[in-house]
Specification:
43% helix, alpha/beta, 334 residues, TIM Barrel, 2 domains, Non-ribosomal Peptide Synthetase Peptidyl Carrier Protein, Chain A
Length: 334
C-alpha cells in the first residue's frame, strides 16, 4: 500500500514531484504554472541570509509566497551560522510550510565563499549550522545538497545521516559533485545508498537528469527514492509534472501541450512576471523559457530571436499573436 510522504507534519503526496529551487526561474509566476501542472511541492529561489538581515529589497521580495502554492518551501543560503539562524527567523515570519537550506549551489560566487555547495568542504560546520537552524524554528527544515565537493569527498551517506540526527525532516540530493557542476551524468547510486541506509527514516528525494516520464519511472523503480525533484527539465515546460504523473498512473504518454496551451502559458507567465517584478526585469527573466515553450515548432528561431530581444509587454503579446497565426496548423507530437 502506498503511503503519503510527509515532511514533518506536511503531507506532500504518495510519490511527490518537487520543483527545484532555481535562481531567476522558480519565482511566483513560474511556480503558479508548475502548481497547475501538478508539482506537489515547490521551493522558492534561494535567498541570501545576509540579504534578509540587511533587508535588501530583492531578498525580501523572494519571501513572497501565496496560499495556492502550498505546500511551499522557502530556501535560504549563507556561510555564517549566526546569519543563517537570524535569516531562518525572518523566513519563518513569511509562514512557509518548510524552510530549506541550500547546500548544493555550485556557482563560483556562492560556493567559493563557503555557502551553497561550498560547505561540503567543511562537514562539521554544515552539521553545526543545520542544528542551529533546526533549533531556531518550529517549521520543518529540509536540505538540498550534492554528493560531495569532488570525487574524493562523496560523503553523502554519512552526511545525510548526521543531518537527520540534528533534526532535518527530508533531504534532496543532486547526483553530482560540486566540481561536476552540471556536466556528465548524475549518479543516483549514492542517492540510493542514502535511501536504503537502515538508519535513515526521513524522505529522500533524488535530483538530476530527470527529463522525461520514462526517466522518472526508472529512477523510482531502480533507486527507491521517496520522490523526485525536477529542475532544468521544467524550464519553459511546466507540463513535465503532469506528463510524469500520467505516465506513472497509466503507463501511457499524455498528449503534449497544444499550440494554444503553449501560447497561453507564455502569455500568462510574462504577464505575471511583469506584474511581480516590473516590466524590465520581468521581461528579462522570462526570456530563458521561450525555447522550451515552443520546442518542436519548425523554423521557430526568428520568432525566438524576437521574443528574447523584445523590450515591451505589448511587443511580446504581438509576437505571440503572430506565432498563433503562423503555426495555426501545428499539431504537437512527442
Amino acid at each position: 500500500m502506498n503511503n503519503e510522504v510527509k515532511i514533518g507534519d506536511v503531507a506532500v503526496g504518495v510519490f511527490p514531484l518537487l520543483l527545484a529551487p532555481m535562481e531567476d526561474v522558480s519565482d511566483p509566476p513560474f511556480r503558479a504554472l508548475c502548481k497547475e501542472a501538478g508539482a506537489d511541492l515547490m521551493y522558492t529561489e534561494f535567498i541570501s541570509s545576509e540579504g534578509l538581515i540587511r533587508d535588501a529589497a530583492k531578498s525580501r521580495q523572494k519571501l513572497d509566497i501565496f496560499e495556492y502554492e502550498r505546500p511551499i518551501g522557502i530556501q535560504i543560503f549563507g556561510n555564517e551560522i549566526e546569519s543563517m539562524r537570524q535569516a531562518t527567523q525572518i523566513t519563518e515570519e513569511a509562514n512557509p510550510d518548510i524552510i530549506d537550506i541550500n547546500y548544493g549551489c555550485p556557482v563560483k560566487n556562492v560556493a567559493c565563499k563557503g555557502a551553497g555547495a561550498g560547505i561540503l568542504q567543511d562537514i562539521p560546520k554544515m552539521v553545526k549550522m543545520t542544528a542551529e537552524i533546526v533549533k531556531s524554528t518550529g517549521k520543518p527544515v529540509t536540505v538540498k545538497t550534492r554528493l560531495g565537493w569532488d570525487d574524493n569527498t562523496k560523503y553523502i551517506v554519512e552526511v545525510a545521516e548526521r543531518l537527520q540526527d540534528v533534526g532535518i525532516k527530508a533531504i534532496s540530493i543532486h547526483g553530482r559533485t560540486r566540481k561536476q557542476m552540471y556536466k556528465g551524468e548524475a549518479d543516483w547510486t549514492l542517492i540510493s545508498e542514502v535511501k536504503n541506509n537502515p538508519r535513515m527514516h526521513i524522505p529522500v528525494f533524488g535530483n538530476g537528469d530527470v527529463d522525461s516520464p520514462e526517466k522518472a519511472v526508472e529512477m523510482r523503480q531502480r533507486y527507491g527514492v521517496d520522490g523526485i525533484m525536477i529542475g532544468r527539465a521544467s524550464i519553459g515546460y511546466p507540463w513535465i509534472f503532469r506528463e510524469i504523473k500520467h505516465y506513472m498512473a497509466t503507463g501511457e504518454h499524455l498528449a503534449p501541450p497544444s499550440l494554444e496551451e503553449r501560447i497561453n502559458a507564455a502569455r500568462r507567465h510574462i504577464t505575471m512576471a511583469v506584474d511581480w517584478k516590473g516590466e524590465r526585469l520581468g521581461i528579462f527573466e522570462t526570456r530563458r523559457h521561450y525555447t522550451n515553450y515552443f520546442k518542436g515548432l519548425d523554423h521557430f528561431k526568428p520568432f525566438r530571436t524576437r521574443l528574447v530581444t523584445a523590450e515591451s509587454l505589448d511587443d511580446i503579446y504581438g509576437i505571440l499573436n503572430e506565432v498563433r497565426e503562423a503555426y495555426a496548423d501545428f499539431i504537437s507530437v512527442e
